[in-house]
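User: Could you write out the 3D structure of this protein bound to flavin-adenine dinucleotide? I've included everything you need below.
Assistant: Certainly. Input first, then the structure.
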Amino acid sequence: MTRVAVVGSGNAGLCAALSAAELGAEVIVLEAGGATDFGGNSRYTAGAMRFAYRGHDDVLALVDAEDPRIAACDFGVYAEAEFEADLRRFSGGAELNPLQRLLVGESRPTLQWLANSGVSFEPIYSRQAVLAEGRYRFWGGLTLAAAGEGEGLVNRERELAEACGCEFALNAPVAALRQSQGRVVGVRTASGVEIDADAVVLACGGFEANADQRASLIGAAWRRARVRGTALNQGAGLTLA
Ligand SMILES: Cc1cc2nc3c(=O)[nH]c(=O)nc-3n(C[C@H](O)[C@H](O)[C@H](O)COP(=O)(O)OP(=O)(O)OC[C@H]3O[C@@H](n4cnc5c(N)ncnc54)[C@H](O)[C@@H]3O)c2cc1C
């Protein structure tokens, strides 16, 4: 059986873990934090997920159609071209790179996969819709959020991954990638535990909570920035061991 080690328990790590476990791999998620830090920045989010959709039916396929408000929703269309244009606006008009194109093209199938796996989504009535003449008119392309926001999302993803046999190790910061004959063969935690893996997924966030790295990599003024999310995304420079 293929063994997969996932480093980090945010939305990225949990999706990787769930996907691998659904496909029959033996999966372990290693998370630096304990129960209160589980889920990383993803726990702090509204669980809002931008995705391209062609109209009402695409959205309907992702939500609880029994909710009486659904019949009063005008979701409109958020075409892939609009999503791409929104991304370009955030990067000074630069052409999209292959990863950004993948993000757009796979956005709806990915939400559909999560929904099929058991994550519930709800329209963001409070912030992304205007109520006029009894109709909720959605705007901005940010139409759905996971039920229970970020906390609901990561807890549900963990539940689903555990149901597929995925193991979770908390308080287990990964310090190094183990290698043999030029390939990664596992990880080593800070306390020295060695884990073998056929594949390692690094989903341990960025360096935004590390003031020194912010100052040296993006400018001195960023030392003063306040972090709203997890304190554990320290830009772990995972060394090859
Ligand atoms: C307040 C706030 C609100 C936001 N709202 C939204 C929103 O509504 N919608 C949206 O799309 N985005 C939102 N974002 C952005 C979103 O949080 C990130 O894009 C997303 O969470 C990144 O997910 P991730 O899994 O890559 O990282 P994270 O969720 O941060 O997970 C990284 C995990 O790795 C762990 N880790 C770090 N180092 C190690 C190590 N060495 N070993 C083991 N584990 C390690 C961390 O403890 C953490 O749990 C928001 C961000 C913040 C801060």
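The two ends are 24 Å apart (CA to CA).
User: Perfect, thank you.
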